[in-house]
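Sanity check record (used in CI):
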Amino acid sequence: MSEDLNPINQPKLYMLLLGSKAPRRNVEQHDYFFGIATSLKELVPEIKAFWPEAGASIHVDGWREVNQVDGYEIKILPREAANEDSLHKLFFTNLGGYQSGKLAEQHYIVLSVKDDRASAIQEAKKTVFFKTNSIKGANAHIDEKYGIDIDDIYRVEEILSPVFKEKYHIQISPGSALPEDEIHLGYFKLDKL
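Expected output for DUF1543 domain-containing protein:
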């Protein structure tokens, strides 16, 4: 798959939905991966390092080049050129919830730009998903805890691999009239990226 979204080879923040039918699992498992590169193909070694137990079955089920969130422009700068004075931070929240009669946990992902975790949690609580995916005794929650717990929400910079943290900084600045990020869905084998 050829990618021409980044013509000047500027590093970009990518958010990938990874899938794997890992050994001794009955169903495909999923996880989210954030990486910084000039192309998806460049991320392959870090994807494999992120989920080594997935083996050869690891693949990309969807991806997004993160250029804007909540009206803020997201840019990647070399660490040495970064101005880290910004109060704004990029948060990744994984909401989980239940629907009556379904033996499955539903999930909803929220990317938000906020000043702190508490504000990001309040934003997640406003989603239709949070308000409608609860049943008595099994409320919608941020994974690992029932109810909202700030330990279960991440600044994207916190969950980047050390390779990316050492080289890059995520710069967040107000943007105007930014187009929505395109979401690419499908089954993408790593060797075809």
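Helices lie at 44-50, 117-125, 128-132, 156-159, 162-167. If this sentence no longer matches the regenerated tokens, the check is flagged for review.
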